[in-house]
């Protein structure tokens, strides 16, 4: 069913039902007096969205309990930041899972130091810093002044088509998704990206508490669902502290360079 009922409320004596289509955007529905109203999906059925969340952004379900997006300029940057974190998280989650499935003997926390490089790691870090800095500065400029960095500064024949900030298209869309239902794809991307950010945070906490990857943790839970749970590993209440401790080495050594890998301060 393309539409799903989310909430209902009474407005001027007429029962109104809210629907959302597959893209999560607002849809129109008829009410009992024959008129039509525009409705939108909300994170909490029956709740009211803050004034600054008008439903124009993909994946906007009116959730901003801290009112962080009240400043329109800040809201625009938060969306850009959310998109970047979401995309990196989707790549990271995929990489962690694929690596553990095809090479389960290597713990993803140790995967980097298990690699062999024909050149010094410090050179790689320096090159990555310079290249990422250049790319991020251009991305920031595109957000600050849309279209200002669409032309390659070295090869003027390479350029991006006119685009919305955060969705460059062109060379960054080799499969031509932009020719389809872009608005629906935006919602799917941000939903999957939000799930990926939560998943990656879960991978890290699991790894630090158990010393195992997500696939192994999942198999342990399936084998013993009552004993292998987050509650079994640790819990903090005003009167009780059960800590799993940190299963990760505080330092990893790679090519003679010490890399701090402390656990998150989740457990006392």
Write up this protein:
This protein is an alpha+beta fold and 268 residues long. The chain is 38% helix and 13% strand. It contains six helices and eight strands; from the N terminus they run E-E-E-E-H-H-H-H-H-H-E-E-E-E. The chain has helices spanning 72-102, 111-114, 121-144, 182-210, 214-223, 230-233, and strands at 4-11, 14-20, 27-30, 36-39, 235-236, 241-242, 251-254, 257-260. The strands form four sheets. A two-stranded antiparallel sheet has the order 1-2. It has a two-stranded antiparallel ribbon with strand order 3-4. A two-stranded antiparallel ribbon has the order 5-6. A hairpin with a 2-residue loop joins strand 1 and strand 2 (14-20). Helix 1 (72-102) packs across helix 4. The longest helix has 31 residues, at 72-102. The chain is globular, with a radius of gyration of 24 Å.
Poorly predicted runs are 1-20
- The residue fraction in helices comes out at 25-40%
**Main sheet specs:** 2 strands, antiparallel
Report the strand count: 8
Number of helices: 6
Tertiary shape: globular
Element order, helices and strands? Answer: EEEEHHHHHHEEEE
Q: What amount of the residues lies in strands?
A: 5-15%
> How are the strands ordered across the major sheet?
1-2
Summarize the structure.
The chain is of the alpha+beta class and 268 residues long.
List the helices and strands and how they pair.
Blueprint: E1 4-11, E2 14-20, E3 27-30, E4 36-39, H1 72-102, H2 111-114, H3 121-144, H4 182-210, H5 214-223, H6 230-233, E5 235-236, E6 241-242, E7 251-254, E8 257-260
